[in-house]
């Protein structure tokens, strides 16, 4: 007489033949999965890990690739600078944010020169960036699809930009932001129903600090270690 253990083993050994004969898919049998047996009929497809593809937006930081776009072009007194440390491979965005001259309004920014480079990031889903030695003020990274020339007085025409806001933390901080999370804005206001960012034709990358109508002011400073497009 067969023991219970022997009976169960015999049943399991004969199950693949029964399933094949009856043309029953194993996934329809409760508590069993295609990976239970090693036979070809039930073998699971091998797991293939996703490989991240990346692209650095700035292989080497160069302050000459940027230009100040501050509220001074509208009569304000805010001023920004970009300082590159080639040894540590960082770029420090710093300056002074004034809100008194324009009545609680003020902004300071550093933007890439429109005639320097065009980025095609259509193969990527977002960007990763790392900041250092922030001051707890709110900053933004923006992308623009519009080519803008700077006038002799330093002013520029306003254009639609896609912006992501973040807090500049004192400690080293890393972020991953999907392109879909960059909000379309025009002169600081979100634009509803705007076309999505054209990631194949990015003309401007910009760092900015704004007063938020009097919410922050004074000296500011934050360092960027890297900005990398990622397929994640």
UniProtKB/TrEMBL annotation:
<comment type="similarity">
    <text>Belongs to the CIA30 family.</text>
</comment>
<dbReference type="InterPro" id="IPR008979">
    <property type="entry name" value="Galactose-bd-like_sf"/>
</dbReference>
<keyword id="KW-0732">Signal</keyword>
<feature type="domain" description="NADH:ubiquinone oxidoreductase intermediate-associated protein 30">
    <location>
        <begin position="62"/>
        <end position="223"/>
    </location>
</feature>
<feature type="signal peptide">
    <location>
        <begin position="1"/>
        <end position="21"/>
    </location>
</feature>
<dbReference type="Pfam" id="PF08547">
    <property type="entry name" value="CIA30"/>
</dbReference>
<dbReference type="InterPro" id="IPR039131">
    <property type="entry name" value="NDUFAF1"/>
</dbReference>
<dbReference type="InterPro" id="IPR013857">
    <property type="entry name" value="NADH-UbQ_OxRdtase-assoc_prot30"/>
</dbReference>
<protein>
    <recommendedName>
        <fullName>NADH:ubiquinone oxidoreductase intermediate-associated protein 30 domain-containing protein</fullName>
    </recommendedName>
</protein>
């Amino acid at each position: 007489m067969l023991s219970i253990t022997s009976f169960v083993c015999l049943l399991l050994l004969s199950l693949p033949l029964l399933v094949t004969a009856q043309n029953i898919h194993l996934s329809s049998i409760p508590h069993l999965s295609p990976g239970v047996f090693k036979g070809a009929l039930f073998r699971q497809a091998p797991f293939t890990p996703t490989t991240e593809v990346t692209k650095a937006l700035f292989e080497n930081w160069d302050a000459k690739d940027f230009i100040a776009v501050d509220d001074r072009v509208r009569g304000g007194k805010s001023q920004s600078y970009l300082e590159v440390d080639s040894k540590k491979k960082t770029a420090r965005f710093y300056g002074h944010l004034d809100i008194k001259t324009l009545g609680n309004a003020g902004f300071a920014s550093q933007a890439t020169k429109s005639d320097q480079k065009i980025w095609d990031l259509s193969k990527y889903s977002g960007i990763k960036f790392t900041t250092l030695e922030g001051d707890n003020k709110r900053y933004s990274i923006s992308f623009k699809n519009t080519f803008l020339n700077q006038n002799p007085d330093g002013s520029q025409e306003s254009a639609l930009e896609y912006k992501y806001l973040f807090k500049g933390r004192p400690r080293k901080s890393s972020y991953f932001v999907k392109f879909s999370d960059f909000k379309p804005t025009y002169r600081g206001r979100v634009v509803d129903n705007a076309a999505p960012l054209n990631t194949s034709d990015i003309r401007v990358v910009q760092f900015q600090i704004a007063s938020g109508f009097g919410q922050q002011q004074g000296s500011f400073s934050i360092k960027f270690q890297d900005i990398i497009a990622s397929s994640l």
